[in-house]
Specification:
This protein has about 525 residues and is of the alpha/beta class. It contains 18 helices and twelve strands. Strand 1, helix 1 and strand 2 form a beta-alpha-beta unit. The radius of gyration is 23 Å and the shape is globular.
Length: about 525
């Protein structure tokens, strides 16, 4: 059974939390996120999709988190910490950015860490004592991942951010006596890390409750692979293909594709699926359940990895040297269905898709993704053209990896522009018209759900692009400023949604929340 009921039609917008307007240098899950939900509701939208919300490491990429279970502490709302009596307003003067539409991570990260240290000091000194039992309960409930993660972060701080493989060998190999010694030495820092997670989970529940009360459902994003320098790999080496030194024997990537002529060499360790299968995929299911406690539906990034993933020998200079290695296939999804009862999942079936990937997606009744920017290569049967869609699909004008639609059009060769205008059955126009034309096409398509990045609704050019795949720096920085939130685009979107019969009624049932003891009514 698919997650979308028969004849279901809805729509939403894609916007990462860090891109929300904020006086603190980057968006968070506080009042700015609630105001964004209000915008969605007033524009008739039923869905908000964000990028992964884990703690970022290399390049500030949400797809290279330090943990599959933890939240990014930079997303903790300072306004709600003030409300909780853990900060004073005069302690929250945000950093001034020379470019308001860009996140300056070099100033935002140390600023937010300093602010959080202040909040922790107040809490440790006895502020808001009502939170203490809730914190202890949270720590006990989440101990299966939290204690390893907290120790990992404390050790990472002690060794000044060094890759965990460069720590002393006894810590890399997790010698029990050395771990116990480190826990004693770093107890205060471990407590601080756990407290940050308590706050992000607590505030996340408040955000989710507010979204549901306003008829908005949340789509989360689960990276297929994990970062090589993560608590996931450090604490669970047995589920990855590592050598005796715990370095990856193979790393992940993709062969040459739309984004890169040489393919992409991601560097993530790959899974030992035989080892995971013997555990009933316990770690994978815990990971999925953890995200579903915060969102309603999960977009499975790099879905094709469940059929087969591109394994590149460790140390190889190019992704061209890899080979396809089978994944767990339907066996994993059968285990997930037994565990979860349903599969509230969207398959990111982009890139080099072979028949086995399609068969796996369809055998599990998972909606796939269609991206309009991929559709205009002149092939009339291109699967990204709306006349080829089935209802069990999610259509996007573009994704976080694409240029904005306006920027994309500006870079198109003339033959593809002509193909686009011909498909739209209209005379050639200007680049400022294209984003809304593709949104009309998406919203009028047979797909059950239509999603556009906010940049396309606002008709922004390439300067608002979120990510350039394969480019190591300068990504994930785009910010929405208040002056861009004029009423006109949202009124246009509301009309388009009504005309396309994409009602927010009859939403799939919301997933039950897990951490309800600390939910605070907004």
């Amino acid at each position: 059974m698919t997650i979308f009921p028969p004849s279901y039609r809805a729509s939403g917008l894609l916007l990462h939390v860090t891109s929300l307007p904020s006086k603190y240098g980057a968006g968070d899950i506080g009042p700015g996120a609630l105001a964004w939900i209000d915008e969605l509701r007033q524009a008739g939208q039923g869905w908000w999709q964000a990028l992964p919300l884990g703690p970022t490491g290399y390049g500030n990429s949400p797809y290279q988190p330090l943990s599959s279970f933890a939240g990014n502490e930079l997303l903790v709302s300072q306004d709600w910490l003030i409300e909780d009596g853990l900060l004073r307003e005069d302690e929250c003067q945000g950093p001034i950015s020379p470019r308001p539409q860009e996140i300056d991570y070099d100033t935002v990260i140390p600023y937010k860490r300093h602010v959080f240290q202040t909040a922790w000091s107040y809490f440790a000194a006895g502020a808001n004592r009502d939170l203490r039992p809730q914190f202890e309960q949270f720590r006990n409930d989440q101990a299966h991942w939290l204690e390893d993660y907290a120790l990992f972060r404390a050790l990472k701080a002690k060794y000044r951010g060094a890759y965990f493989l460069d720590w002393p060998r006894e810590l890399v190999e997790r010698v029990p006596s050395k771990l116990s010694e480190a826990r004693g030495e770093l107890a205060d820092m471990i407590d601080r890390v756990c407290f940050a997670q308590f706050l992000i989970f607590r505030q996340g529940e408040r955000l989710k409750a507010y979204a549901h009360a306003n008829g908005v459902r949340l789509i989360g994003d689960l990276p297929f692979f994990v970062s090589p320098d993560s608590s996931d790999v450090w604490a669970n080496p047995e589920i990855f293909l590592l050598d005796e030194q715990r370095r990856p024997r193979f790393v992940a990537g993709v062969p040459p594709d739309y984004f890169s002529a040489d393919g992409q060499l991601w560097g993530n360790p790959v899974y030992d699926w035989d080892a995971l299968r013997r555990t009933g995929y316990r770690w994978c299911l815990d990971r999925l359940r953890a995200l579903l406690s915060h969102v309603d539906v999960v977009r499975l990034d790099h879905f094709r990895g469940f059929a087969a993933a591109w394994h590149v020998p460790g140390g190889a200079p190019s992704a061209r040297l890899g080979q396809w290695v089978p994944g767990p296939g339907a066996d994993f999804f059968q285990a997930a269905r037994r565990e979860l009862g349903s599969l509230p999942l969207i398959a990111e079936d982009l890139g080099l898709i072979t028949p086995d990937v399609i068969q796996l997606r369809d055998s599990q009744n998972l909606p796939g993704m269609r991206v309009l920017q991929f559709g205009f290569d002149g092939n009339p049967q291109n699967p990204h053209l709306p006349h080829t869609y089935v209802p069990n699909a999610v259509v996007y004008t573009g994704t976080h990896d694409n240029n904005t639609t306006r920027g994309w059009f500006d870079s198109l060769p003339e033959p593809q522009r002509e193909t686009l205008w011909a498909y739209l059955r209209r005379s050639p126009g200007e680049s400022r018209e294209v984003a809304h034309e593709l949104m009309r096409l998406a919203w009028s398509s047979p797909a059950a759900l239509a999603i556009a990045p906010l940049q396309d609704l606002l008709n922004l050019d390439a300067a608002a692009r979120m990510n350039i795949p394969g480019q190591p720096g300068g990504n994930w920085r785009w910010r929405l400023t208040d002056d861009l939130l004029s009423p006109a685009p949202f009124a246009w979107l509301r009309d388009l949604t009504a005309q396309s019969n994409r009602s927010t009624a009859d939403l799939p049932a919301a997933q039950p929340t897990v951490f309800q003891e600390t939910t605070v009514a907004p």
